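Researcher: Structure for this, please.
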Amino acid sequence: MTAITAVLSYYALLLILPLYLLRIFTINDLIINWLRDNQQYALLVVPIVAFLEATIGIGVFVSGVFLLAICTVMYTEQIASLSQMLPLAFAGAMLSDHCGFYIGRWAGPKFHHTKFGIKHRVRFEKTEKFIVRFSWWAVIFGRLMSTIRSFVPFVIGVSGMKPLRFSLFDLLACGVWTTGLGLLIVGLDKVVT
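Model: Predicted structure, token format:
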């Protein structure tokens, strides 16, 4: 029975994967064509996508790969330079992180008394102790790990970290993240051309 299931799964993957890749390439072509046709608005996309990919809830659906792809296309097509894109990406990331942080600070006391907060109290207490103990590591790694990026500032806000402390750590984290974005854009340009 497991051999049959494995064979069926393999053939299902062979059928679904090309459709999925076709959809991705169609979306990418759509984005590339829009950027080429609307160069005067292209730079506005950078901070918006940087903001969305780190926004609590939305960031789960808007991957950082979109921002990387958009910036790489803009760089390779000479629509924008790194010196134009990277500060905008930095600003979008900082703004999103701070929105998540302040929402967490505002919701924190209420959040602990919700059914979800009560049910997972032990887990949240461990997380908050980790954040207090390794505060700057939590901010930096939270910014660099795409799977948890949109939730970390919220959780840090809930944990009660001081705003100035968060801002300083986030400034460093977004600087590291923006540098990495720039290096990836230049590196991908070398591969593409």
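Researcher: Any notable elements?
Model: Residues 41 and 100 are 27 Å apart (CA to CA). The chain has two domains: 1-34, 38-192.
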